[in-house]
Specification:
About 65% of the residues lie in helices and about 5% in strands. It is rod-shaped.
Length: about 170
């Protein structure tokens, strides 16, 4: 005689403070469980281990963590923005970053003796005056000036040689 164990499951859920889906009834002991028709009987079965509360299932966060890592710049549209453009990335911060990059390059070039102190000062002041959009623009200007200087030297030398001969 195997009867429905709805009552036992409901009573067990109440005693174990969980839902009926979390209650496990030992399938080998259906007869003993089906005779229990009071809270006291069900409490005894819980104590004996014939009725137990299933452990909580853990939801793996691995997938989500992986997505979060790659999220980066996924939904940065207008609707997601709370602050003004200036609040989100201040123009002063952009300026400071650019100045530091340019000045670092100028220092490096001066220390490597790729430029003399006069050229350094001239480029430094131009950088301060917002003449260079980025590092590449500064490097191009420096190389152009060095080439001009080299050409001027060659022309000057040739002129000097001509004057000596004449």
């Amino acid at each position: 005689m195997v009867s429905s164990m709805k009552l036992q499951k409901r009573l067990a859920a109440s005693l174990l403070h969980c839902g009926q889906g979390k209650v496990w009834l030992d399938p080998n002991e259906t007869f003993n469980i089906s005779i229990a028709n009071s809270r006291r009987d069900v409490r005894k079965l819980v104590k004996d281990g014939l009725i137990i509360k299933k452990p909580n299932k853990t939801h793996s966060r691995g997938q989500d963590r992986g997505q979060r890592r790659h999220e980066g710049n996924r939904h940065p549209g207008e609707g997601k923005r709370k602050g003004t453009r200036e609040a989100r990335l201040p123009s002063k911060a952009v300026w400071m970053r650019r100045m530091r990059v340019l000045r670092r390059l100028l220092r490096k070039y001066r220390e490597m003796e790729k430029m003399d102190r006069h050229m350094y000062h001239e480029m430094y002041m131009k950088a301060k005056g917002n003449a260079f959009k980025n590092k590449r623009a500064l490097m191009e200007t420096i190389h152009k000036l060095k080439d001009e200087k080299g050409r001027d030297k060659v022309i000057h030398h040739q002129f000097a040689v001509k004057c000596k001969d004449a």
